[in-house]
Write a sequence for this structure.
């Protein structure tokens, strides 16, 4: 399966989970941070995700400015998102 993480129809984690889970033979679960842009996910290639669980990683170099700004303000305010 190949997904373009810049596709606006699943540009957020929750939407991406829905797209993956909607494909036959795949199940995705969102754990941890519920909000974020799918473009911040690290690239995955050559990983067998059909027969074993795989935890997707974030790539901090791909963060967009609003995520960095929001994370900083939340941390300073002690707000859990």
């Amino acid at each position: 399966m190949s997904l373009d993480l810049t596709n606006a129809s699943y540009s957020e984690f929750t939407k991406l989970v829905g797209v993956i889970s909607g494909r036959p033979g795949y199940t995705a679960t969102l754990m941890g941070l519920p909000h974020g842009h799918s473009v911040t996910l690290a690239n995955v290639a050559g990983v067998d995700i059909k027969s074993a669980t795989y935890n997707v990683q974030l790539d901090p170099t791909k963060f967009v400015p609003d995520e960095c700004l929001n994370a900083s303000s939340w941390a300073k305010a002690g707000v859990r998102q």
